[in-house]
Amino acid sequence: MEALKYSAERRSSFTDAEVIFRVTNGEKGLYEILMRRYNQTLYRAVRSYLDRQEDVEDTMQETYLKAYSKLDQFKGEAAFSTWLVRIGINESLQRLRKSRTMRVHSDPEVRMEQLQQLPDNGQMNPEQRTIQGENKRLMEQAIDRLPETYRAVYMLREVEGMSGAEVGHCLEITESNVKVRLHRAKSMLKESIWGAHAGAAAFEFGNSHCDKLVEAVMARI
Predict the structure, then answer these.
(1) Are residues 110 and 184 in contact, defined by beta-carbon separation less than 8 angstroms?
(2) pLDDT digits 0-9 by tens, 37-60
(3) Best CA proximity match to 166, nearest among 185, 54, 106, 174
């Protein structure tokens, strides 16, 4: 695999543009760099639309394959992550349409602190870890209950940390619309988990899932 020609430190220093240039010029093994770099971002975007883990992972795989096949069309007018998420959202919506599980939601509202990862430096006792895990579970359930329109904005803006402009580009809405939907999403979350504290980052795409996805995609390109 071409990626093995470079040390881990050297690979991590490649910009997205450099990786894309090298991949489109034959070093396809380096595509793994982009996948590992944006697995978490893509997972959270797709997870905003799909509930079943296997559907999410299948959609991520198809997204990466489609992005790879169109990599020479990427012009750098937006960040690669934004371009990738846009493809992922389209793939998610196609899957929803095919399965005819698209839901109709009512118009809701909301406010809540951004999810933050509480560092575990080894000083947390078992009770604290249990509470942290429970908080994370409650937060993920509350996000799942958000209507799709608001869930996607919240996940990309607050959980993944994209800018309002990037979210707007991904969802094809105005930046002001992003702000309105985000405000509503936060208000709904606060109401849903009143008095609760978000103790961990939601919807993490763990290392084992990451490795599995990367291997599956690399075997198909």
Answers:
(1) yes
(2) 999 999 999 999 998 899 999 999
(3) 174
